[in-house]
Amino acid sequence: MQIQVNTGNGIENKETLERWAQAELTETLSHFKGELTRVEVHLSDENGDKAGGSDKRCAMEARLTHHQPVAVTHHGATQDEAFRGASGKLKRLLDSTLGRLKDHRDHGSIRKDGTLEAEPGL
């Protein structure tokens, strides 16, 4: 799984932040490493130096093997809050998406040995 971190203007300590983000995502998404080819992270400061509430934004896009990519976005007052919020959303989305695909693949057929079985008493 490849992790690419992109930072926008207004984001400080870019290299340290990128290393930290890669380590955090590697741990958080380790359960899905066989299903993921790449995760892209986009961190930005939407308001710059202006005072405001949730002006830090983190968008994450996960590229899945043999499936469409999925994406989430989270806003927060700090870079950490935005990143952790987005990574939590991405983990839940992957759990849901890949869980549904696995359930669909694992469901048995209503047929046994090529014949349709009727329930007793019908």
UniProtKB/TrEMBL annotation:
Quote the biased-composition stretches of kind Basic and acidic residues, using this chain's numbering: 101-115
The protein's superkingdom reads: Bacteria
Q: Where is this region: Disordered?
A: 101-122
Looking up SUPFAM superfamilies in the UniProt record yields: Ribosome binding protein Y (YfiA homologue)
Identify the InterPro entries for this entry. Answer: RHF-like, RHF/RaiA
- Protein name, as recorded: Ribosomal subunit Interface protein
Organism listed in the record: Rhodoferax koreensis
Native organism taxonomy: Bacteria, Pseudomonadati, Pseudomonadota, Betaproteobacteria, Burkholderiales
